Amino acid sequence: MKTIKDIPRPFFEIYYFCAVTAFAIIYTFPLITNLGGIFYGFPWDSIGGIWNLWWLKFSYLNNISFYTHTYLSYPSGYDLSNHPYPYLFNFIGFLLTYFTNEIVAFNIIKLISFPALALTTYFLIYYLTVNKAISAITGLIYAFSPFHAIHNMAHFANLYWLPLAVLFFLKLLRECGYRNAILFGIFWGFVFVDNAYYAYFLGLLVPVFITVFILLDKEMSGNILRITFVKNLLVSFLVFLFIVFPMMYPMFKGIFSPQGSQIASAYGGNRAFSDLFVFSAKPLDYLLPSKHNPFLGWLIPDFGMSPLKGHRYTEHTLYLGYSLILLGGYAFYCALRKKGQLAVNSKDRQTIYLFFAIAIVAAILSAPPFIPLGKYHIDIQTREIFAEHKLYLPQYFLYKLFPMFRVYARMGAVVLLAVCVLAAFGLREISARINTLRMRYFFLLLFSLIIFIEYAEFPSLRLTMVKEPEVYKWLASQSGQFPIVEYPLGASDDPYTTYEYAFYQRIHKKYLVNGAAAGTPADKFRKEVMDISKEEAVDKLSDIGVKYIIIHKDKYIKGNEYVPLDWLTQPPRDKLFPVEYNDGKIPNIPIKRLRLIKDFGDVAVYEPIQGS
Q1: What phi, psi does 155 have (nearest 5°)?
Q2: Could you identify which of 54, 524, 562, 571 might form a hypothetical disulfide with 575, taking C-beta atoms 3.0 to 4.6 angstroms apart as the criterion?
Q3: Residue 373 — φ and ψ, nearest 5°?
C-alpha cells in the first residue's frame, strides 16, 4: 500500500497546493460562485485595497499618472510620488485586474494566499521534521489559523514569504554558503516589500537566532563566529537592500527633498505613543478563541476594554489553540528528557529549544511597551497606561527608533509559527509511537478535527456583497468630468466615508474632494468645509468648482457602521460618531446656497446655487 511519503517530489507539493486551494474555496464558499459580485473580507481596509487595484488599471488605460492625480483630494490632488511602492503586489494585482476586474483580482489574491502560505510553511516544517504528512497538516493549520484568516478579511496579510525567509536563514546558520545567503536576502526582501512589519520582526529576531545557536551548539558557534559567516550575512543584507530599494526609493527621494521633514513625519513621526498600547497583544489574546468561533465563541465573555484581553477583532485575535500548545509542550518535554526520536537527534532538540526561545521573545515583543508595577490606571480613551513604576520592554525603546511600527500585536504571526514548529515535532513524536499506519492516520485525522474546532472562524462578515447604489449609477450617467464632495466629510483613514466614497468612484469616475491625506494643505481645507451647514463652507466648495454635494443622511444618523465590525466589544461613542458626523444629527442645509437636485431617500444630491 502506497503512503504519502511514497509520492515523489515535486508531485506531492503540486497535489498539496491544489488540495489546499480546494479547501480555501470550500472555506470561502459561496465566493467562488460570484467572484465579481462578492469579496472576501469586511468593508474596512479591503475596500481601499479594491480601489487601489481599480486605480492601477484605470490610470493605465486612461494615460493618467498613477502617482499624482486629482481623482482624490480635489483640487490639490493626491500625491503618491513619495510613497513606498510595493512593486510585487502591484505588478500581480495589475495583471489580474487588467484581464478581469478589481473585484475578481482581489478575490483571486485572497484565495491564493491560503495555499501559498500553506506551501511555504510546509517547506519550512519539512526541512525541520522530514515528515510530509505532518508538514502538510502544519502548513494547513498556519494558513487557516484565526490570525491569517482574519487579517486576510481585514486587509492583505501577505505572510507567505515569511516561512521561506526563516527556512533559508536556518540553512544559512547551519550550512553557511552564498547560495543560502542570497536566498535568505531575497525572501527577507520579499517579506518587506509585501508586508514590512514581518520583515522588521524577523530583523529583530535575527540576534535571537544567532545567540541561541551559539549557546546550544559549539560546532555551530564556531561557524557563526568565523569571518565567513559574517561575509554571508553581509551578502544577505546587501541582497535584501537590493530587493527593497525599488520600493523605498520614492520615499527616500522625498525625504531628501525640500519637503523632507513633512514626508518623514508622514511615515512615523506622527504616530501616537498610545498606539503601542492599543495595538499590542494582551495575555488572553493568545489563550482565547474569538467570539466568532461557531463552536467555542459562545463561551467567550465580553471583556470590554480590559487590560487582559484586546478589543480589536483583527489585531487581537491571536489564539494559538490548546492542542498546539500541548503538542509543543510535549515536544519540549521530550527534548529536555531526551525521549523518543529526540533522544538520538541533538539537531532536532536544538531546533525545539530555538523555536521555544523565539516564541517567548516574540510574545514579549508583542506586549505593551511596559509592564505596570504598583498603582496604575488606564486612560479609557487612549488605552495608555499610567503607572507608579514601570518595567520597560524592548518595544518601548524600539518605538523611539522606528515610530512607524506601532502594531506589535502582529508579532503574533511569529509566535504562532514558532508554536507550529514545536507542535509539528510533538506530532511526529506521538505518531512515531503508534505502530500501525492506519492508527497513525486516525490519530492525525483526530488531531485535525480538534484543531478545526479550535480554529474555525466563520463570521457572517467574512464575505461582503458588492452593491451599486442608485446615487452612483445616476452620477455616472451625468455627462462630463467634474468634482463632487460627499458628506460626512470623514478623515483620510475613515473606512465608512473616505474609503467607501473612493470604492464607489469605480462606478461614477468623477473627481472627489474627499480623500485628503492627514497633515496636508488639502486636509486643512477639508476641516474648513467639514460642516456643510455653514454658508462659508458652501462658498469655498463653489470656488473650487464643485458641481454636486452628496449628503448621506443615513451615515449621520447611524454613525460609523464599519467600526463595530472590527471591535470585540461595544465601541465608545466617539468612535461611532467622530466630529465629522455632527453628533448623529443631519446638518441643516443652507437652502439659500444649495439646491436639491435628486433625493434617493437616505442620500440627497445638492448643487451650489450660483451667484447667491
Answers
A1: -160, -155
A2: 571
A3: -125, 140
